[in-house]
Amino acid sequence: MHKFVIAVSGSVGTGKTTLAKLISRQAKAEYVDVNNLLKKNKIYSKYNKKFDTYEVDVNKSNKFLLKIIKESKKSIVIDSHLSHYLPSSKVDYCFVTKCNLKTLKKRLEKRHYNKLKIRENMDAEIFDVCLFEAAKNNHNIIVVDTSKGLKGFKFSKYK
After folding, report:
1. Residue 116: partners with Cβ closer than 8 Å, 6 or more residues away
2. Does a structural domain hold residue 158?
3. 141-145 and 5-10 as β-strands: parallel, antiparallel, unpaired?
4. What pLDDT is attached to residue 158?
5. How many structural domains compose the chain?
6. In this structure, what are the phi and psi dihedrals at residue 43, rounded to the nearest 5 degrees?
7. Tens digit of pLDDT at every position of the chain (159 positions)
8. Which of 59, 99, 153, 156 places its Cα 20 to 30 Å from the Cα of 46?
């Protein structure tokens, strides 16, 4: 069986984690939570108080993730809004989650994000930042609209 790598990207709050965990369960693949790994291994340049987030060096992040991909014995599903920056030659498919703005705003408010962080993430979704960058990096893209959840979503492994 071919070992595969799937990147799951998308704006914050659009359903990346839900989709990535679902795919990894269905495909019996390893789930990689990039946010936790980057924090745990201190692969960030600084903490931005204004946006209540860590600023990540994409080159360091990619180097770290490429090592995980190389060392993994199993297929893996990478969960991060930065995963589309990985070289397309190392990723079989890049799923990009999308969500309607009304639903996204509710999700972000439910997380108690400040107004500035909500606006920034809404703008990223409005301008399709992750989708545009994934296309720019020549990924094989599959767009998944999570506005109504993922009930009935099925992932089929390929050979």
Report:
1. 50, 51
2. no
3. unpaired
4. 53
5. 1
6. -100, 65
7. 579 999 999 999 999 999 999 999 999 999 999 989 988 888 877 888 877 777 888 999 999 999 999 999 999 999 999 999 999 999 999 999 999 999 999 999 999 999 999 999 999 999 999 999 999 999 999 999 999 999 988 886 554
8. 99
Query: d(Cα 114, Cα 121) in Å, to the nearest integer?
Result: 11
Q: Residue 99: CA atoms inside 13 Å, Cβ hemisphere, count?
A: 28
Residue found under tokens 């999700």: 107
pTM for this prediction: 0.92
The parent domain of residue 85 ranges over 5-145
Q: Residue 22 corresponds to which tokens in the numbers above? A: 């679902």
Letter for the amino acid at 139? H
User: For residue 23, what is the domain's CATH number?
Assistant: 3.40.50.300
Dist CA 140 CA 121 (whole Å): 24
Whole-angstrom Cα distance, residue 71 to residue 50? 36
DSSP alpha helix (H) spans, the chain: 16-27, 34-40, 58-71, 101-110, 115-126, 129-136
